[in-house]
Amino acid sequence: MKGKKILVTGGTGQVARPVAEALAEHNEVWCLGRFGAPGIERALNEKSVTTWRWDMDDPSGDSLKNLPRDFTHVIHSAVRRGEDGDFNAASGVNSVAAGRLMSHCRDAEAFLYVSTGALYARQTLDHRYTESDPVDGVADWLPAYPVGKIATEGAVRAFAQVLGLPTTIARLNIAYGPGGYGGVPMLYFKRMLAGEPIPVPVEGQNWCSLLHTDDLVRQVPHLWRAAATPATLVNWGGDEPVGITDCIRHMEELTGIEARLVPSAVTRETYQFDPTLRRALTGPCAVPWRDGIRHTLEALYPRLVRRNTDHGLGRAA
Q: What is d(CA 244, CA 252) in angstroms, rounded to the nearest whole number?
């Protein structure tokens, strides 16, 4: 994409920051946020990203009042996750913020809302979830999070049709890569480094569809092109089914650091996506997950990666 005016929320996080920085090379990119982390706003400015202070929790919505309205594309990734367990706040803050943002940018060519696969009703560990599978918003590891996402998806669907704003709702799987904290696989690796137990299912393993940053960034323009009214709904993950236990064992092989896997009835639930629709919209992914994990470890923990195994970030055929 070139010559567009793009608005990004959640641009300090694992998902949207690499998108903002990549698009800023050939487009005018604005990033909304609170920028509470030291140095983050300056870092974005140095990448030619214009920053604008915005608080999703602001009940008045005044922080959007003087923001330009002539954005051609929007990616809304910011979220109140609901760590405090307040279901009403998670639903209200997220859905109202999305509605205000869509109203402000009603003349955009496309709006992309980043939702989550964590809202699906849990089925078998190896079930391949499709966009038509039932949702229930139950997630023991962060209960208010999927409920807030379901509420916000409803708001986004409504505003897309009422405003006539072409929209894509992308239910994200596990994004990971060398930027930020590295994503969920690196959270597991930190537990490995600390010698902390990692709960795994008593039988079988959890499955997911890891999505490397390089693929995520490349796919965003395709998801904008797929925007429509009513909103387009798509599962946003990688092409390959990835077992969480297999991923942890792979990190053991790459680093020699042992993981303490503890069978448990309660684990961090993950979801494997059927990539059929997403591949039709974006084309195939380019980064095989094993190469992506190595690449991420080499970037974040360069001294811990063994040098006697295959090198380089491979590309899928």
A: 13
| Structure letter (DSSP) for residue 312 | S
Rounded Cα gap, residues 247 and 257, in angstroms? 13
By DSSP bridging, strand 49-53 and strand 28-33 are: parallel
In DSSP terms, 51 is beta-bridged to 31
For residues 1-13, average pLDDT: 94
pLDDT in tens, 139-185: 877 889 999 999 999 999 999 999 999 999 999 999 999 988 999 99
Torsion of CA 227, 17, 283, 136, to 10 degrees: -60
d(CA 21, CA 25): 7
Query: pTM for this one?
Result: 0.94
Question: Tokens 């300090």, residue?
Answer: 12
Start-to-end CA span in the chain (Å): 24
Place of tokens 């990688």: 238
Q: What is the phi/psi pair of residue 85, to 5°?
A: 80, 10
Report the run of H or E that residue 186 belongs to, with start and end: helix 184-194
